[in-house]
What does this fold into?
Amino acid sequence: MKTRVLLGEQARGFVGALAPAPRRRVWAAIKALGQDKGDVVQLEGDLAPYWRLRVGKIRIIFEEQYQDGERLLKCFFADYRATVYSALAELIANNLLGELGQ
It folds into this structure.
C-alpha cells in the first residue's frame, strides 16, 4: 500500500523556521516516515488517536488515515518536546484542532 506524508501549515512553518542542520534532519525523518522508519510512538490518553515522530528534541504529531486505498500520514503539529504535548492537549480541550488543518 502506498503511503503519502502530508504536512500541515503549522508543522511546515515550524520546520521551515529551524536552523539549516536541524531542518535537514527533520525533513529526512519526515520523508522516512512514509517508509515506516523513524522513532514513532502512538500517544496515550486524550491524545491516543495521534502518533508522534521524534527527531532529537523535536516532536511531530500526526494522524494516520486511509483514503482511496492510500495511507495518509497527516503531520499537523510540530514543536519542541517541552511544549508540544501540553499545547496539543490544550488545542484538543478547546476544540481548536480544526484550525491546524485537521
In short: DSSP finds three helices and five strands in the chain. The radius of gyration is 13 Å. The chain has one domain: 3-100. Residues 20-33 form the longest helix (14 residues).
